[in-house]
């Protein structure tokens, strides 16, 4: 009986050691495989620090000596400066200085001149910090005569205004995370917000005027709420009050497709060069980078200013969809050109500005509460805004996700080493027992 128990213990020990080898091997293999393909996906803490450093330097040196800041490929802050003294101040602060010819004051003056010119539908412009230019784009709907007139305006501004044609047409993406429907079309539930008394959906303003009634997806017979406030054109945001006044469980989660979602922990300002994600009910989860801030777009319905410009794709039906990075809410989808087959440009209404204007805050956070310019997110985990479902975003990682973290290479190797020691030890004990048994048998035979 005692020998049988010993055999069982040894077998269990061997199985545990083999399991440890398998677990450690999985951790190491998945951790190595999860290394980012390029250095541009900088660690989150580095990118947040870089954005804060760049913003502080621009604020201290002023718009006459700087021309914007962005996150470089190495994750460090890059600040455009116009003189040697400013460049030295930037380097002392640990950031990279880029000497440019035109200051932010000049670039903003050029943008103001464009805004004052006769409006041309199908055009957009934004300041490109990297090239130190104001880039004016015209879609396929802009006639040759209108394009020539706009070119005349830019010639009077200076050589730092660049004009280029773009494929497709700049349109609002009417028709998001979770789809919501009204007689005006289909939009998305962007972020759940509250004023402390009632809960709302913050979505795009072009989705529908005040009084629009919204229904859930599916048969469309479940009333979600009614638009109670908004701004479009000029801005592009609106507020849909929930029919029962409450968003429900999981209100701090946005859907990313396949029943999954990411938990939102705060709101912040976007930074040029930042890697971001956008979710929409038409095209699902897409990623890209912020290419410009304070963009102006002349939609057919009117002009919207102060937008975030990105190279993330979007399609009709994605309006109002959430844009975020590392669980930080950045904006809601406004419009753009192109599609997710050919690519394109998509603009977003900044979230902090919209929340300030509407007097609301994100559900589940104390307010905005985030550093500007958070960095790359890892693809998120599970649920939907306003739905009762678990989230596997920033706070709710699964066990598998934890094991796949590349930081677990060291622990994985330790588990493998411990399992090998356990296997050797059980084998050594087995051989020692076998030798004792053989000696006893030999002694009995020749006794």
From TrEMBL:
Listed Pfam families: Pro_Al_protease, Trypsin
Ranges of compositional bias, category Low complexity: 372-391
Region of interest (Disordered), ranges: 368-391
Peptidase S1 domain ranges (all copies): 153-434
CDD domains: alphaLP-like
Record key words, sorted: Disulfide bond, Hydrolase, Membrane, Protease, Serine protease, Signal, Transmembrane, Transmembrane helix, Zymogen
Signal peptide (residue range): 1-33
Family: Belongs to the peptidase S1 family.
Name of the featured protein: S1 family peptidase
